[in-house]
Amino acid sequence: MSILSNRLTRRPASIALAGTVLLAPISLLAPALHAQEVTVTSSSSSTSERWLHVRVIDTNHKGETVRVNVPLEMAEKVLPAINKDRLHSGKVRINDTEMNGVDLKTLLDAVRSSKDGEYVTVQGSDNDVRVAKQAGYMIVHVTEKGFRSDKSDKAADKSEKSYERSRVDVKIPMKVVEALLSAGKDELDLVAALRALSAHGGDTELVSVKSDDSTVRVWLDSKNVSD
Amino acid sequence: MMILAKLALGTASTLMIAGVYTFREGTVRVDVDEHRAGGAHVHVWAPAAIVPMALHFVPDDKICEAAEHANEWAPLARIAARELRKYPNTTFVEVEDGEDHVRVSTVGTKIQVDVTNPNENVHVTVPLAMVEDVIAQIAARQPAS
After folding, report:
1. Residue at A227 is within a domain
2. Which of A52, A64, A197, B18 has the smallest count of CB within 10 Å of its CB?
3. A35-78 pLDDT, tens per residue?
4. Are A32 and A55 members of one domain?
5. What is the pLDDT of residue B145?
6. pLDDT tens for residues A120-132?
């Protein structure tokens, strides 16, 4: 025992080196392990995160499906870094000529400052359109009608029956509309809109499109996966 | 004999520390498998730490050329890489088109792109920290305008 202790006291450098070799992997990997630990924790505690989901299902051809999941916080930070075409610093320029003379900003501003109610109701032969403001939301419904021959109608073989060819439902919180309009003239502030969306509590279905050959859904919730 | 043992211990420890340090940043992984006769099968596993190191040996004019092309997307890529690290094990984009399947996701602190179809499978995994390092290095070596 004394021989061993003597050897140990005589070779401190060798022992230190051996100890370093043994402990090096642990000490160097510790930050990585710690990072893993942190990531697991953050993953499980990210329930307050707001996620924007987009799902497109095309029933034509081979049945294409696109799913996009974006955390709003990330979108808020990434968007200002994109400076391309009409998008700059998180704002998008509106070109009057491309809006067919419709002043989108004035239109949205008019809806914002008006009381709850139904603003536009069009019931045409091809389309039904409804624009309303209700309980803090701007609501747009568009139904496109199609016609097909009604075979059950034996009296008149050529009679056609209308059916719902596609349906578009848009439901945007008014706070988001207000945030969109907070930019300067001829601009929409997308980052401010994202912030407003982030602050909007609860699960919200923003856009839903259903047609013969495709389904589009855009919604907001606290899950990092699509359903 | 003892001197030899000490030398061996020193060499082994240096190699081990170097190895651990190299792999500490994770690995860049590229797997390509072509499903046809004579198709390519490429499997590359490289320590992520060597990529920023290797950049030091790239001539300045080449870096400047890369920086010119990168100017538009570099700030976006840097912010995206930093932000993506906050969302481990998440699928951001998934596209299924018949037998084609594309997925962009994070696995831990790495970004992973998987493309699978009947002709080939491609899987690329890159540590996000490495992406940040590379972009920062390219930006730092850009001449002041």
Report:
1. no
2. B18
3. 444 343 334 334 578 999 999 999 877 789 999 999 999 999 99
4. no
5. 59
6. 888 888 889 998 9
Question: Count of domains in chain A?
Answer: 2
Tell me the torsion sign for CA atoms B116, B121, B127, B130. negative
Inspect the interface and report whether the beta carbons of B95 and A66 lie closer than 8 Å: yes
* Shortest Cα distance, chain A CAs vs residue B7, angstroms: 10
- Whether residue B20 and residue A74 make contact (CB cut-off 8 A), yes or no, is no
Q: ipTM score here? A: 0.79
Count of all residues that appear for chain A in the document = 227
Phi, psi of A34 (to 5 degrees): -60, -40
Query: Would A226 be classed as within a structural domain?
Result: no
Domain that holds residue A11: 2-42
Chain A positions contacting chain B at CB under 8 Å are 14, 17-18, 20-21, 24-25, 28-29, 31-32, 35-36, 39-40, 42-43, 46, 61-71, 73-74, 77-78, 81-84, 224-225
Contacts 24+ apart (CB under 8 A), B65-70: B66/B138, B67/B138, B67/B139, B67/B141, B67/B142, B70/B135, B70/B138, B70/B139
pTM: 0.75
How far is the C-alpha of B140 from the C-alpha of B145, rounded, in Å?
12
